Amino acid sequence: MLAVEGIEAGYGRTRILHGLSIDVPKGGLIALLGGNGTGKSTCLKVIAGLLTPGAGRVTLDGEDITTLPAEDRPGRGLCLVPQGKEVFGAMSVEENLMMGGFHRRRDKADLAEDLEGVYTRFPRLKERRRVSAGMLSGGERQMLSIGRALMSRPRMLLLDEPSAALAPKVVEEIAEAILGLRELGLSLLLVEQNVGMALEIADHLHVIRGGRIAFSRVVDGGVAPDELRSFYLSGGHDDES
Ligand SMILES: Nc1ncnc2c1ncn2[C@@H]1O[C@H](COP(=O)(O)OP(=O)(O)OP(=O)(O)O)[C@@H](O)[C@H]1O
Q1: Which among 190, 200, 81, 93 has a CA at the least distance from the CA of 140?
Q2: pTM for this predicted structure
Q3: Which of 40, 37, 10 shows the shortest CA–CA distance to 22?
Q4: Of 53, 224, 231, 241, which has the maximum CB count within 10 A?
């Protein structure tokens, strides 16, 4: 579905990613883990088209989208779910959701149907549809961020640390919501710091280190938490780049 091959990227003269490659198969839930500042968000920015790589390529269903403008990617079914704190705080919940369907604005009937679909999935957003997004709790904002992405009718979602700054009980709710997306048939790339959550829901995990994938395991019975822990303790934080 999504293939990221040999990406070199960074900011100005600082290179952060050194030949990073990841595959997300159709319907797969792939977790990308790594310590602070290792380049996880940088990788998502490259895939979402917010940062142009110096080398390497990104393909979606075999089509090269490396230089496709960011705003054209949702129309191809590829959508970034930013952290909940990045919702439009001054706009209502419903206005935020409608922004997610902006590129489909000519299909008003379809948009209304999709809005109902998001409300069915997240009843709390329906209750709060007229409230400013800035007034929502952290968990509700994360649901809004996911709901906004769903309005673009994606096939592939990039989730940027959906558990960040949430209480454990709320993390469980978000994990459930992500599993629900999978049941919809979506392909998912999940960037996380929360190893426990990733182990619980992902089918494959990768750890980024030194700007490339340094550790990869199939989760289903194939990864021992101790093995992962010792990888982190041996320098999972980016001290090689
Ligand atoms: N816009 C930017 N300009 C310059 N440097 C940046 C920029 N964004 C990120 N960086 C740097 O790039 C490196 C990787 O950052 P990135 O946000 O990709 O890490 P991360 O793995 O997502 O970390 P975290 O889990 O803490 O969010 C860091 O050293 C960061 O300071």
Answers
A1: 93
A2: 0.90
A3: 40
A4: 53
The CATH number fitting domain 2-84+154-233, selected from 3.40.50.920, 3.40.50.300, 3.40.440.10, 3.40.190.10: 3.40.50.300
Neighbouring residues of 221: CB distance < 8 A, sequence distance ≥ 6: none
Q: Could you tell me the distance, in angstroms and rounded to a whole number, from the CA of residue 163 to the centre of ligand 1?
A: 18
CA nearest neighbour of 194 among 83, 79, 48? 83
Phi, psi of 118 (to 5 degrees): -65, -40
- Residue 198 sits at the vertex; the CA angle it makes with 195 and 199, to the nearest 5 degrees, is 85
pLDDT per residue as tens, the chain (241 positions):
999 999 999 999 999 999 999 999 999 999 999 888 899 999 999 999 999 999 999 999 999 999 999 999 998 999 999 887 888 999 999 999 999 887 766 677 788 899 999 999 999 999 999 999 999 999 999 999 999 999 999 999 999 999 988 888 899 999 999 999 999 999 999 999 888 888 889 999 999 988 999 988 888 765 666 777 766 666 554 444 3
- 235 C-alpha vs ligand 1 centroid, how far in Å? 18
To which residue do tokens 């709060």 refer? 128
Query: Domain segments of the chain: what residues?
Result: 2-84+154-233
Q: Which amino acids bring their CB within 6 angstroms of ligand 1?
A: 11, 16, 34, 36-42, 193
